[in-house]
Design goal:
Blueprint: E1 6-11, H1 20-33, E2 37-42, H2 54-72, E3 77-82, E4 103-105, E5 111-116, H3 121-135, E6 141-144, E7 151-153, E8 156-158, H4 163-173, H5 179-187, H6 194-221, E9 226-230, H7 234-239, H8 244-252, E10 257-260, H9 271-289, E11 293-295, E12 298-300, H10 311-320, E13 328-332, H11 347-362, E14 374-378, H12 382-385, H13 403-410, E15 415-419, E16 431-434, H14 444-453, E17 455-459, H15 460-468, E18 477-483, E19 492-494, E20 499-500, E21 503-504, E22 507-509, E23 517-522, E24 529-530, E25 533-535, E26 541-544, E27 547-548, E28 552-555, H16 571-580, E29 588-589, E30 595-600, E31 603-608, E32 617-620, E33 627-634, E34 637-648, E35 651-654, E36 663-668
Helix pairs in contact: 1-11, 2-3, 3-6, 4-6, 5-6, 6-8, 9-13, 10-11
Protein name: Glycoside hydrolase family 42 N-terminal domain-containing protein
Length: 669
């Protein structure tokens, strides 16, 4: 094997609560769990005392350095995870007068007690000084925490709108403007304003500028140290104007990028729930960062015990992370208070059991740019172009572009998120999916090419954008009108003339856990095929729902602010979509609800995001091989088993029992 899956253990060494026993327990755990790196927290969570002076930071470094030297002799490297950049949230502390920088103000005028204003030069100098000091012990990675952002700094919702920032915005506008007037303009319904562009541009630039300053300072002290970034929700990062490529260029320079994507489920949830968030957060982030990077998702078990998360679910998160292209993991398994290793959890055995399987996966790592199947378009700049409805809350700027990804992945299709903008190379001969207002990022000409060269899955909001741009002809339509959910009109959707799950004319909801319905008027055309219709509770037809045209499949629903597209997760919808798309020969699983598939070249990754046991694997692929090699973990061993595949009407059947929460790799023999 050429590569290993990188186990980085995040660990709190409290300088005032450390002992030889804790040190011995840490070393034993690292040996037994096959840990590659220990990432030491500095000033974390419950021990956090706010932004620290140089003398206060040195106390942590002096405690970490001796144990890092012992780990080095065991070929275990050391990294540092300072727990604050701006500060996660207010916790009763204030900025030390010796540091003297100002704090963040949110869009409502609330001022933080301790969260730094990112435009304050004193804070920027503080970051340079602090990270230069951290670099002095030559860590392998030196992390920026995911508080390096403009949002979600409790109680601050979105910043920064302090006096200094208002001066910056006013200067760029060419006139003095109040916070209230500026925020109103940023969120104003209709065409995006100059004020919004200024806010996003400033937020984007100041984070890149700080990253460049810190990178230069760290490189001067420790040239081999890799400046690395933790991140959280991609849609919220869009609301702060994050430029993923620009930011990582600033952080990494000529070194390999190091990213910690958010891995959802700090506490245990159902695997099916986790499946959706894994797509919309982890997979989208790894796509934005790029495959030429070290991708170490965050596996956190807060509140840190097996009452928070079972070891089996933890192991499932660990092993299924390979579907995102991960080649390592950041393990936040033990508390941040300073208790050290808790052997009762028996994590060492779990990590040891998975290690060889994960090493095998690294040597068969997914190439993110070559995944077969449905391409879901994402744009990091959508907050610049989104048109708000009410203009009262920053949440209206959140892109809603991941819904197709979560849905069709859960229904068994192989999928791939793709960053797509006006400057992107034109896609050709692909099945692509577009939701939300992504099309607002593109010119009419680019949109026309997209439809001409590909087959496009659309939601209601996308069609609404086409109407706004006078491009309804692309979907053979003449008009479209929104009808509110739970308005007493549409109640259910019926697939008349079809039979799914043995049900004639099956129905799914248009009432619960789904957004508004876009009633579309279509031209009388032989190219239109109506797959389903909307009906009232008294069985009166309202209009078409799912419609197939020569170049598109339309599912004209909106987004429910609480439930998203939850009502669409149904085997009836799965059968309808697979039947509608059958001519495109897409890779997908058959009769395996909740199981995820990623096909890339000769590699077929399958992960069971359910608690059900499947007696066999049924899949639809473009090439029908007679035999494959299934690679799976059995306790601590990697088993490579040649299996036969029987084909019938384009569906292959492999006799393999897929366990609940199991991830396997099938290779073409």
């Amino acid at each position: 094997m050429n590569d290993t899956f990188y186990y980085s253990l995040r660990f709190t060494l409290d300088p005032k609560f450390w002992s030889e026993q804790k040190e011995d327990e840490l070393i034993d755990f690292c040996k037994n769990a096959r840990i590659d790196n220990v990432c030491f927290f500095i000033n974390p969570e419950e021990l956090n005392q706010g932004h620290q002076t140089r003398a206060e930071r040195q106390i942590w470094l002096d405690a970490i350095l001796p144990i890092s030297e012992k780990l080095k002799r065991l070929n275990i490297s050391t990294s540092l995870n300072p727990w604050t950049t701006l500060m996660h949230s207010d916790r009763g502390t204030t900025v030390n007068p010796k540091l003297g920088f100002s704090t963040m103000v949110d869009y409502l005028g609330n001022r933080s007690g301790s969260i730094a204003c990112p435009a304050d030069e004193k804070w920027q100098n503080y970051m340079v000084d602090a990270y230069s000091q951290y670099a002095s012990i030559h860590p392998k990675e030196l992390w920026f925490e995911d508080d390096f952002r403009h949002y979600n700094h409790t109680p601050i919702k979105l910043g920064c709108f302090c006096e200094k920032h208002m001066e910056i915005y006013s200067k760029l506008l060419g006139r003095t403007i109040s916070r209230e007037e500026f925020v109103k303009a940023v969120l104003r319904p209709g065409k995006p304003t100059k004020e919004r562009r200024i806010y996003l541009d400033v937020a984007r630039k100041e984070m890149i500028d700080v990253a460049q300053l810190v990178k230069k300072a760290v490189s001067n002290v420790s040239s081999d140290t890799r400046l690395s970034l933790m991140s959280s929700f991609p849609d919220w990062h869009a609301v702060e104007g994050r430029d993923w490529q620009g930011l990582f260029n600033a952080l990494s320079g000529t070194q390999i990028r190091v990213s910690r994507p958010h891995l959802p489920a700090y506490n245990e949830v159902s695997p099916l729930r986790y499946s959706r968030d894994f797509d919309r957060y982890t997979r989208i982030t790894t796509m934005q960062v790029g495959e030429e990077a070290d991708l170490y998702p965050e596996l956190e078990n807060y509140m840190y015990s097996q009452y928070a998360k079972s070891s089996r679910f933890t192991q499932f998160q660990l092993e299924s992370s390979t579907l995102s292209g991960a080649n390592g993991i950041l393990l936040n398994l033990f508390d941040m208070i300073g208790n050290g290793i808790d052997s009762y959890f028996d994590y060492a055995r779990m990590l040891r059991d998975s290690k060889d399987w994960l090493n095998f996966s690294v040597n068969n790592r997914i190439s993110l740019s070559n995944i077969s199947g449905i391409k879901i378009l994402i744009n990091q700049d959508s907050a610049y172009t989104i048109q708000t409805e009410n203009g009262t809350n920053p949440t209206e700027l959140l892109p809603k572009e991941s819904e197709w990804l979560s849905l069709v992945s859960a229904l068994g299709f192989s999928t791939s998120p793709v960053n797509y903008s006006e400057e992107s190379k034109d896609l050709e001969n692909e099945v692509i999916a577009v939701s939300g207002q992504l099309l607002r990022n593109l010119t009419d000409q680019k949109i026309v090419k997209l439809f001409s060269n590909n087959f496009v899955l659309l939601d209601g909001e996308s069609v609404s954008v086409l109407k706004n741009r006078s491009l309804l002809n692309l979907v053979k339509a003449t008009d479209a009108t929104w009808i509110k959910a739970r308005s007493g009109k549409q109640s259910y959707e019926e697939f008349s003339g079809s039979s799914f799950d043995g049900i004639e004319n099956p129905r799914v909801t248009l009432l619960q856990h789904v957004g508004d319905y876009l009633k579309i008027d279509y031209k009388n055309s032989s190219q239109i095929k109506v797959l389903s219709q909307a009906y009232t509770a008294s069985h009166e037809r309202v209009g078409p729902v799912m419609v197939l045209t020569e170049k598109s499949l339309i599912m004209p629903i909106g987004f429910d602010d609480k439930y998203g597209w939850e009502g669409e997760y149904h085997t009836i919808k799965e059968h309808a979509l697979k039947q509608a798309l059958q001519e495109f020969d897409l890779p997908y699983l058959v009769d395996m609800p909740g199981v995820k598939l990623v096909v890339e070249g000769e590699k077929i990754y399958i992960s069971n995001f359910t608690t059900d046991l499947y007696d066999g694997i049924k899949l639809h692929l473009s090439d029908e091989n007679e035999s494959y090699t299934i690679n799976f973990r059995k306790k601590d061993e990697v088993i490579n088993e040649v299996v036969q595949c029987s084909w019938n009407n384009g569906v292959g059947k492999i006799d393999y029992q897929l366990s609940p929460m199991e991830t396997i790799l099938i290779l073409k023999k």
